[in-house]
Amino acid sequence: MARYTGPKAKIARKFGEPIEGHSKALQKKNYPPGQHGRGRRKKQSEYAIQLAEKQKAKYIYGVLERQFAKMFDIASRKQGITGENLLQLLEARLDNTVYRMGISPTRRGARQLVSHKHILVNGEVVNIPSYSLKPGDVVSVRERSKSLEAITNSLAGRGANKYSWLEWDSASLSGKFVSVPSRDDIPENIKEQLIVELYSK
Questions:
Q1: Which of 127, 132, 185, 200 could link 181 by a cystine bridge, Cβ 3.0 to 4.6 Å?
Q2: What residues does each domain of the chain span?
Q3: Where do the record's region annotations for Disordered lie (predicted)?
Q4: What gap in Å lies between CA 172 and CA 175, rounded to an integer?
Q5: Which fold, 93-179?
Q6: Distance from C-alpha of 111 to C-alpha of 130, rounded to nearest angstrom
């Protein structure tokens, strides 16, 4: 399956929540998209619920099926709770961290900034959105990219540092991935245990 690039509103309505940021479509049409969206919903099977949760996590973080399965495999072999390990791996992705730091208002935009070589990790250009950060890594905007309108506009709307595992220096346009976030710190509405149960079948 190729990465989804279609309407965000359609995905938001499918899951009944703003998957890729605020969506006005949910306020106007709080039912699933499609011909039978307004109809009475069938009772979902256990498998369907688990699958939907996995799909939701993939859409939120912009990860493809093969990448997601590989990350789950890594998470399952690490010490600790598999579901929490999985979310921590997703949060440690470079594109997600660029988004969390406010360099881009969306994960899609963050992925594009990384791919187009606007982002440095520890002073070196890294153009792999899935690059996994380690505690202590410094993420910064490349010098020649600091005046990019997309970046300046996003940072202008940036509030105070919202995430305890990240530090941000607005003067140098750089931030640090201080530590791996705990599950309580990760704000995404994902029931990771359902994903673990799905892969355990």
A1: 185
A2: 93-179
A3: 1-45
A4: 9
A5: 3.10.290
A6: 9
